[in-house]
Amino acid sequence: MRLLIVEDEPEAARLLADGLREMAYAVDVAYDGVTAIEKAYCNSYDLIILDLMLPGKDGYAVCRELRATGNTLPVLMLTAQDQVDKKIRGLDSGADDYLTKPFDLGELGARVRALLRRGPALRDPILRVADLELDTRRRSARRAGRAIELTAKEYALLEFLVRQHGQVVGRAEISEHVWDERFDPFSKVIEVYIQRLRRKVDSGGTVPLIHTRRGEGYLLDDRGDADA
Ligand code: CA
Q1: Where are the domains of the chain?
Q2: More confident residue, 16 or 204
Q3: 18 alpha carbon – ligand 1 mean position (Å)
Q4: DSSP-based three-state secondary structure for 208
């Protein structure tokens, strides 16, 4: 899952980005509203964390502009003071939820997970495909009851494939949702991570779940035929 943080205070933005990256999200940062809107047009974010008080175009304006153009991605608004009228204005401008500063990173993580689960199929924190089980709260994976040790990035890629299971996902789609804007499209990093996941998820005589579709991308499926 790829998030955009919009926060004009560099230190606050850095702390937020570091905390969310530790939670296995790909994170981009914008320091003002105009850049935020540009980035939201150019990239497929899964959620925006939007500070209300920004220089120039503030959080309300950014949110209204996104909604006016039909952009429905979840917006979590950050307000500096615990003021009811600000929250109401934020929600009226199209934000899905708000959080008052200062907040605990754990609470932010819980709000982010709740917003990302909005789709009815994703409410259960446990995702399952065949005997593979992902706990999206703990960011852990098990196959046939056996724990799989994964790095944050390996987990993020596996969760993305599991959420799209049964569908072929291309490299561009993977890089847009699992890597941030520093991703080098000419690198082999996705292939390397797929190989690592295969070793960890599909080892030990189990039915392979991760399949390659040459020229198309990758597919996580328990009914996948031999790799084409
Ligand atoms: Ca601010």
Answers
A1: 2-117, 126-220
A2: 16
A3: 18
A4: coil
Tokens of 226: 């031999």
Q: Does domain 2-117 have CATH number 3.40.50.720?
A: no
Centre of ligand 1 from the C-alpha of residue 210, in Å: 43
CATH no. for 126-220 = 1.10.10.10
Residue 27: how many other CB atoms lie within 10 Å = 21
Tokens 């606050």, residue located: 12
Lowest mean pLDDT among 24-33, 44-53, 66-75: 66-75
Give the distance (Å) from ligand 1 centre to CA of residue 85: 18
Q: How far is the CA of 6 from the centre of ligand 1 (A)?
A: 9
Return contacts of 158-162, CB within 8 angstroms, 24+ apart.
158/134, 158/197, 158/201, 159/1, 159/24, 159/127, 159/134, 160/1, 161/197, 161/210, 161/218, 161/220, 162/127, 162/129, 162/132, 162/134, 162/220
> Smallest Cα–Cα separation from 197: which of 156, 139, 136?
156
> Using CA atoms, how far apart are residues 21 and 29, in angstroms rounded to an integer?
12
Does an H or E element contain 162, and which? helix 152-163
